[in-house]
Amino acid sequence: MQTAGIKEVIMEQAQTPNRLDPIHRGHIRLRPDKPLRKGMRNMQKPTLHSIAKYLDTSTCTISRVLNGKGSQYRIAEATQERILNYVKKINYRPNVAAQSLRLNRTREVGLILPDFANPFYTNVAKYVATEARKRNYSVQIIETEDDTKTEIDAISHMLHCRVEGLIVWPVGLESKHFRDLASNAPPIVLVDRCFPDLKLSQVTVDNALSSEIATNHLLDFGHREIACFQGLEHTATSEDRVEGYRRALTARGIGVDDSLIIGDSFTQSSGYRSVGQLLASRPSVSAVFSLSNQITLGALRAFAERGLNVPDDISMVSFDEIDGVEFFATPLTVISQPIAEIGRRATEVLFEKIDGNDSCKEQYQLLPANLISRSSVKLFAQ
Amino acid sequence: MQTAGIKEVIMEQAQTPNRLDPIHRGHIRLRPDKPLRKGMRNMQKPTLHSIAKYLDTSTCTISRVLNGKGSQYRIAEATQERILNYVKKINYRPNVAAQSLRLNRTREVGLILPDFANPFYTNVAKYVATEARKRNYSVQIIETEDDTKTEIDAISHMLHCRVEGLIVWPVGLESKHFRDLASNAPPIVLVDRCFPDLKLSQVTVDNALSSEIATNHLLDFGHREIACFQGLEHTATSEDRVEGYRRALTARGIGVDDSLIIGDSFTQSSGYRSVGQLLASRPSVSAVFSLSNQITLGALRAFAERGLNVPDDISMVSFDEIDGVEFFATPLTVISQPIAEIGRRATEVLFEKIDGNDSCKEQYQLLPANLISRSSVKLFAQ
DNA sequence: TTGAAAGCGTTACCAG
DNA sequence: CTGGTAACGCTTTCAA
Fold first, then answer.
1. Are A134 and A153 found together in one domain?
2. What CA–CA distance (Å, rounded) separates B183 from B270?
3. Which of A73, A353, B127, B355 has its CA 20 to 30 A from that of B184?
4. How many CB pairs under 8 A join A and B?
């Protein structure tokens, strides 16, 4: 624990000045006769009502002016100016809860990700946030920690909050909760771990094709005994990648040996254990195709512990780019996903749907990934 | 652009069944006589009103039961059960906007970070999200991209949304907008890039001390000519770290040479440029202390391009842990910040303040960092 | 050109 | 034990 030795400088409670213009002080308690309702926090902010009272006009006139409908309702220039000036002066901002209630729209979108500590996932947030800011939307986030139950709760929470749109990077094991969505649910876009047979907009990389390319790369270097370190079984992501691996081998007339396909999750731990299992059963293997960056990191650790060198003792290709791989003892050859593009697409699709652009039907978008060749694959010379 | 070659599978609009129990269908349009208000989206959900009508009871009774005040108001067990069953059956969830409006509390907290793609920042989100979920709070996020103007807008947006608490990882260049906060602003906790003279709760690492330790480490290995690659100037984070570096040198009676302190931001680009500048002016330098992980990555690239080896040609200590450094050609010796602890603390403080726990005054918490010794520092033998 | 008033869905006060 | 009713702050209809 890092708890010991902490220096705490206790300070006084902030005494910053109240920003409410004194001119508006008459509004601080609009009804001083009535007692404050229980459970209400006493921070009186200006309201249309209080402003109307002060400017001797009505709430609706102010509302109109603020919503840019001044000319539409032919409100006198002078009145408009008076209102705008005053509102600016006291820094008035309408109450979003009241607006949401009245308009039945929240100006919020939701984002559900497996892990906030992994930039691979949080990258999507960049585009959602940018686009949301442009449109004056808020972004709400929830982390699932790859737990389906949490994901279901998260979606339920978002719907409960009446978000106007939702981007989900699903755990990928179950899709029932997506199928069960009510027809009046807000637009939803799935990212990466998709379900091809689901009638929802989805954006992902062409996993099978990318895997085929990676496997072919190893084959081109003469490798024939290639292990595949898979991720979470029964997810489309893992299965599609394994499928690509199989396709590549089969196409060259090499039989697929199922004992070479090992691992059970997209984690370092799985990668680490896979190495042990592999070397025990198939010490003659000459190359590994790892299905994610985390799996790779775990495998690398296991190889290092055994004094095995990449690529001298074993060649390696990994799915996903890794921050700083170019400085690794052996810079890794990887399949690099267009992560930024995935985020941008998902965001675009989401807001198109929010805007009710019906030209945009439910789509299943497959983006291409690139092989980046570095030095972790060596010619196999038996 | 990755746009080419995309396969789009156009699907039909989802036709999932409406989840509203048929028993509740009488509520779908409560007032079919009245036309729908303009601007309102037609997705009728059950309300207390509609449920009350159906169960032949009143809104307040239902409200009480749902808020666990059934026994307090001595509502008949039978009634309670009837209500709970039905509410569960139709999957009713109260309208949050109406609750917010009525209670004047939003059950939302805000999180403002410089960059969503950097796990160093997003790690805080893990704790905020976990704690928020426990308490049934929502988490809203905004990214500033290290731009003060954006930060000011972000804070303004959060206040506008009436979040009940706010965690900010500030840009760090300006603090005026924090000073100007109204006294009725929600609790705010600052993280990492702090302003020691600000009367706000702040959580950060002891930058000066950590820097001193790092510099001492280099001094212990015999280095005397040590460069310091600083970050964004005029931020407490950078200045405190430089201060620690100065202190260590001075304590050993070694004069501080300002021409050895170079760099202008916490970016790879700054680190890269610093190497060029350093080698041009002081080719005799034997060690570098880099003030952030990004700076380090940039510097490493520059060294590699010049064929300079770490640590044979130059020793290096870096602030911040880097994912996978143990696999680097030269595993780096770093100052590892207790990032998880920082996030946990900030979250704890925030929710204590939200709960109005006044035992918790404004605090400036300094957490200790650790030196993790690997192989990037070599004995200096002239 | 403006305003009064009716809700949006909830909770709390009071009255039975 | 239960329910009517008045807010909360906003937007829009309708009337002037």
1. yes
2. 39
3. B127
4. 244
